[in-house]
Write a structure and sequence with these properties.
Blueprint lengths: L2 E6 L7 H12 L23 H11 L4 E6 L13 E4 L18 H8 L6 E6 L11 H7 L2 E5 L2 H5 L12 E5 L23 E4 L8 H10 L5 E4 L8 E4 L6 H8 L4 E4 L8 H9 L2 E4 L11 E2 L5 H13 L2 H18 L2 H15 L1
Parallel strand pairs: 1-2, 1-3, 3-4, 4-5, 5-6, 7-8, 7-10, 8-9, 10-11, 11-12
Helix pairs in contact: 2-11, 6-9, 8-10
Length: about 350
């Protein structure tokens, strides 16, 4: 019977002993880790991306075939029979390393090189057009990107002519990032008074997140109040914490102070934090380059601070009734268009239609 070989990200175990064993499993192919069969994997609730992708794809694929599951950072090669299917994510770095650099030459690259003529190879990865974001995978896609699944917002396929990957992909599928809305219930049910609303950003400060624009917004608005959860510093924004599990209890406390989630990314696949906050009941204002452009989301621009300030002033003056209407729509869109059933079915159909 043919098998599906899924290469994605396995969550690490806690404790020194667990971490040691995980490290061994990444490098020694003759020691088979329990995750190879989907067993004893320390999934944490709520399961955060990218582990949420691993969890849901693994679960869905098992309904169709035997599945072997590999961690992205394993350093050996899958053994593929002629009828087997490979569904694999490459390592993406933004520091200029080539995909064959020993530090990133992982199981996906090694397997694709060894089985370069294998007809049932499918590459899956988050995507935007940015050249630095794609630097590590560009040559890899040139060589192995016949069938590619991109996790990204519609902006990136609507402007596909601008893609550096376009010449090398024969068959393409775009899928929207998904979320389990049950893990992210509504916690934001009321908003601060007009003119007193506070803003929230959750995420790191890598260049493509464009947090310089968040700093520009804060500087341009007297008395601006914004809070930041994540790595790095954002001038003009209060640091809430370096990171946090976005549990309903934690976000319920955040919701007592903050009202509107801002994201000004200039090259994002689809920021999962936006989906999470759509479900939690926060109003969302973001750039289309963040991956979302629903009519319930207030649009921002990546480098037009004056426009963004006007949008924020508009949000400060909106009636709470209108804000709540938009947040209800946000959650409805997340449930309707960003559920794991759609995500997995689209991928599985694409694989079996093109194998």
């Amino acid at each position: 019977m043919s098998k599906i070989h899924l290469i994605y990200k396995v969550p690490r175990r806690g404790g020194i002993v667990g971490r040691i064993f995980d490290k061994i499993f990444l490098t020694l192919p003759w020691i088979v880790p329990t995750w190879r069969y989907g067993l004893f994997i320390p999934w944490r609730k709520p399961i955060k991306a990218p582990h949420s992708i691993s969890y849901n794809l693994l679960k869905a694929l098992k309904l169709h075939s035997k599945v072997r599951f590999y961690d992205l950072y394993e350093k050996h090669t899958c053994h593929l029979n002629s009828s087997d299917i490979l569904l694999a994510v490459p390592i993406q770095t933004m520091d200029g390393r080539d995909w064959k650099d020993p530090s990133v030459y992982n199981i996906t690259a090694r397997t694709c090189d060894r089985y370069s003529e294998h007809k049932n190879m499918f590459i899956i990865m988050p995507y935007n057009h940015d050249s630095q974001y794609n630097a590590t995978v560009l040559d890899f896609i040139k060589e192995h990107g016949r069938n590619v699944i991109l996790i990204c917002g519609p902006i990136w396929t609507d402007t596909w002519e601008q893609s550096p990957l376009k010449p090398y992909i024969k068959k393409l599928l775009r899928v929207d990032m998904a979320i389990d809305s049950n893990d992210y219930p509504i916690v934001k049910k009321h908003f601060n008074q007009k003119g007193k609303r506070k803003f929230l950003y959750i995420g790191h400060t890598e260049y493509y997140k464009n947090t310089a624009q968040l700093e520009a917004i804060a500087k341009a608005i007297p008395g601006f109040e914004g809070g930041h959860i994540g790595r790095g510093e954002i001038n003009g924004w209060k640091k809430i914490s370096d990171g946090a599990d976005l549990t309903p209890k934690f976000m319920g406390e955040i919701a007592k102070d903050y009202d509107i989630f801002l994201n000004t990314s200039k090259a994002d696949a689809q920021a999962t934090t936006i989906l999470e906050n759509m479900c939690f009941g926060f109003l969302v204002a973001c750039t289309p380059e963040s991956g979302y452009s629903y009519d319930s989301i207030i649009p921002l621009k990546i480098d037009d601070t004056d426009f963004n300030v006007k949008q924020i002033d508009y949000l400060q003056k909106m009636d709470e009734k209108e804000l709540l209407k938009l947040t209800r729509l946000n959650r409805e869109y997340a449930i309707k268009f960003h559920n794991w059933d759609i995500f997995c079915k689209k991928i599985i159909n694409f694989i079996y239609e093109n194998k």
